[in-house]
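Researcher: Let's do a round of design. I'm pasting the structure tokens now; please hold your answer until I've finished.
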């Protein structure tokens, strides 16, 4: 079953980058959900399996950036700039409403 998402959902596809999920494919109980995602940087459309898709940070909801997204961005930055830099995955601090 294909479901068009309206509005689209901002996501990060591990290994591809930030983008917007424009649809979702559900092949049934024996399969992962597939997120049809338009990647910001390249404009490519990818059908990403559920375990490769992460929501980004959302200050209003108190959700910080996924450590996997932070690591992917740091590793891409290092690769783009010729450096040998590796990011560690650290726990994401919880944003409390008192800090708003």
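Researcher: That's everything. Go ahead.
Model: Designed sequence:
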């Amino acid at each position: 079953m294909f479901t068009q998402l309206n509005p689209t959902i901002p996501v990060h596809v591990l290994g591809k980058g930030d983008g917007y999920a424009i649809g979702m494919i559900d092949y049934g109980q024996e399969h992962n959900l597939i997120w049809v995602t338009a990647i910001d940087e390249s404009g490519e459309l990818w059908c990403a399996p559920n375990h490769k898709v992460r929501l980004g940070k959302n200050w209003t909801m108190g959700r910080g950036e996924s450590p996997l997204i932070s690591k992917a961005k740091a590793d891409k930055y290092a690769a783009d700039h010729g450096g040998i830099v590796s990011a560690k995955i650290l726990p994401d601090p919880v944003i409390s409403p008192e800090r708003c």
